[in-house]
C-alpha cells in the first residue's frame, strides 16, 4: 500500500457515510419514519440498486452484475488475484429500517472512498458487493443471491422461484434489468467480512460497542397449508366443522410453548398467515402460514422441527383437515473463520472499543460466503434491539466504530 497516513490511523468519514445511508433510505421511504421498504426485485429495489451501482462507478470500481442480480465493485490492488470482499444487501422487509443490510454495503463504499482519498492502493484488490434477495421475504429462501453466488443453488433453480405475490425471480430480474452475465458460481474472494447491525439487544444490554461475530444460528423456514371445509359460521355446529383456521391458531400457540419448553437460544415465529376466503362469517376453507424456527444447535433445531411436525399432524387429523408443507429455507448453523474473527476482535481493541464474541441470531450473506472463503462479521448496536421495524436505529458513534473496524479489518486482510 502507498499512503501518507499510516494505515492503522486511517478513519472513515461518518458524515459521508450518514449521507449515503440517508440517500438510500429515501428510496422506498416509509412515510413519517426513518425506515424504508424495498422488497427484493421491486421497482424500489431497482431504484436502490441503480443508486448504489452509480456510487460504485463514481468510486472508479469495476462493476459486474451476475445472473441472479448480485453486484460486485472491485478496486484494483498492487497485485492481482481474488479480492478481500465486503458487502451485504440493500433489499429490505416491508417494515424495514435504514441500517439492516444497507450499512454493510454503504460502509464498504466508505472504506473504498477513505482509501482513495488517502491515495492508498491496497496490496490485494478490494471488493464491495450487494447480494440479491437477502431477506427472502418476497422470494424464499433468504440469502438467495449469495447462496447462488457461492454455488449453493443452481442459477436455473433460483430463477424459477415464485414470489409470494406471483412473479418468478427470473421474470422480475429481467423486468428491472438486473439479469446480468457475470459467471456463476463466482470465483471465491480471498476473504469476506460483513458489517451489520446486531438486530438484537445483546450489545446494548452488555454496554459493548462491537460484536466480533463467531457464526450464525441454524434456520428452518416452512410454509404450511391446512385444508378443511368452508362452511357457514352461524349454522355449522362445532362438531361438524373441519376448521383449518383453528389448526393454524393452535399451531401458532404451540410454537410459542415449544420454544419456551426448549429454552434459549431457540426461537420460533409464525410470521405470515393467510386464510381463504378470509371473511368474518365463513369457516375458512384453508389456512396457509409460515413457521420460522432457529437455534445455534442443529440437533435441537431438528428436535423443534420434529415436535412441531408431530403436533401439526395430530391437530389437523383430529380436525379432519389435510396438510401440505413446503420447505422455504433450511440452513445449518455456520461457524466463521476463527482467524478472521480474531482480526475483527483485535481491530476493535486497537481502535479502543469494547468488543464481544457472539453468534448471530439473524441470517446473513456472510453465512453463505463462509462456504468458500475465510469469513467473519462485525456487529454494531441496535437501539432497543429493534430491527425489521422502521424504528431501527444505530447511533452515529456506533456506525463510525463499526465502519472503522471494517476498514482496519479489510486493510489487515489485504496486507496479510
Ligand atoms: O431472516 C433473517 O434472518 C434475515 O433477515 N434474512
Ligand atoms: Mn440483514
Ligand atoms: Mn433483515
Structure description:
The strands form three sheets. Strands 1, 2, 3, 4, 5, 6, 14, 15 and 16 form a nine-stranded mixed beta sheet that branches. Strands 7, 9, 10, 12 and 13 form a five-stranded antiparallel beta sheet that branches. Strands 8-11 form a two-stranded antiparallel ribbon. The chain has two domains: 7-217 and 334-415, 3-Layer(aba) Sandwich (Aminopeptidase); 220-331, 2-Layer Sandwich (Alpha-Beta Plaits). The protein is an alpha+beta fold and 416 residues long. The longest helix is centred in the C-terminal third of the chain and has 21 residues, at 298-318. It has helices at residues 14-25, 43-58, 102-117, 144-149, 155-159, 169-176, 202-206, 244-262, 298-318, 338-350, 366-369, 396-415; strands at 62-65, 71-75, 84-88, 126-130, 191-197, 210-216, 218-227, 231-232, 267-269, 273-276, 282-283, 286-295, 322-331, 334-335, 355-360, 375-380. The protein is elongated. α1 (14-25) packs across α3. β3, α3 (102-117) and β4 (126-130) form a beta-alpha-beta unit. One manganese (II) ion binds next to loops.
Amino acid at each position: 500500500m502507498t499512503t501518507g497516513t499510516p494505515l492503522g490511523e486511517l478513519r472513515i468519514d461518518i458524515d459521508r457515510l450518514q449521507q449515503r445511508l440517508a440517500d438510500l433510505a429515501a428510496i422506498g421511504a416509509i412515510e413519517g419514519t426513518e425506515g424504508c421498504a424495498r422488497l427484493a426485485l421491486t421497482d424500489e429495489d431497482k431504484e436502490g440498486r441503480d443508486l448504489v451501482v452509480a456510487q460504485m462507478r463514481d468510486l472508479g470500481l469495476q462493476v459486474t452484475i451476475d445472473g441472479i442480480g448480485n453486484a460486485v465493485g472491485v478496486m484494483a490492488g498492487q497485485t492481482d488475484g481474488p479480492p478481500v470482499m465486503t458487502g451485504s444487501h440493500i433489499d429490505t422487509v416491508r417494515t424495514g429500517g435504514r441500517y439492516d443490510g444497507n450499512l454493510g454495503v454503504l460502509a464498504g463504499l466508505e472504506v473504498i472512498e477513505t482509501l482513495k482519498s488517502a491515495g492508498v492502493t491496497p496490496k490485494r484488490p478490494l471488493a464491495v458487493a450487494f447480494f440479491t434477495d437477502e431477506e427472502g421475504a418476497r422470494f424464499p429462501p433468504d440469502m438467495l443471491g449469495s447462496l447462488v453466488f457461492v454455488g449453493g443453488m443452481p442459477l436455473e433453480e433460483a430463477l424459477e422461484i415464485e414470489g409470494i405475490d406471483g412473479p418468478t425471480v427470473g421474470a422480475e430480474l429481467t423486468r428491472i434489468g438486473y439479469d446480468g452475465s457475470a459467471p456463476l458460481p463466482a470465483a471465491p474472494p480471498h476473504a469476506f467480512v460483513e458489517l451489520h447491525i446486531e438486530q438484537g439487544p445483546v450489545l446494548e444490554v452488555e454496554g459493548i460497542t462491537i460484536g466480533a461475530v463467531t457464526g450464525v444460528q441454524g434456520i428452518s423456514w416452512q410454509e404450511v397449508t391446512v385444508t378443511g371445509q368452508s362452511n357457514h359460521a352461524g349454522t355449522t355446529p362445532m362438531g361438524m366443522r373441519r376448521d383449518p383456521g383453528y389448526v393454524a391458531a393452535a399451531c401458532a400457540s404451540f410454537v410459542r410453548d415449544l420454544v419456551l419448553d426448549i429454552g434459549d437460544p431457540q426461537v420460533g415465529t409464525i410470521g405470515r398467515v393467510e386464510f381463504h376466503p378470509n371473511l368474518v362469517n365463513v369457516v375458512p376453507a384453508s389456512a396457509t402460514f409460515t413457521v420460522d424456527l432457529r437455534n445455534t444447535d442443529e440437533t435441537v433445531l431438528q428436535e423443534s422441527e420434529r415436535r412441531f411436525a408431530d403436533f401439526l399432524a395430530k391437530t389437523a387429523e383430529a380436525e379432519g383437515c389435510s396438510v401440505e408443507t413446503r420447505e422455504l429455507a433450511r440452513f445449518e448453523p455456520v461457524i466463521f473463520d476463527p482467524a478472521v474473527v480474531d482480526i475483527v476482535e483485535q481491530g476493535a481493541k486497537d481502535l479502543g472499543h469494547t468488543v464481544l464474541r457472539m453468534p448471530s441470531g439473524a441470517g446473513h450473506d456472510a453465512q453463505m460466503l463462509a462456504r468458500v472463503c475465510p469469513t467473519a462479521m462485525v456487529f454494531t448496536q441496535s437501539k432497543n434491539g429493534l430491527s425489521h421495524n422502521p424504528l431501527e436505529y444505530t447511533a452515529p458513534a456506533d456506525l463510525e466504530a463499526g465502519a472503522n473496524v471494517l476498514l482496519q479489518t479489510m486493510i489487515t486482510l489485504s496486507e496479510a
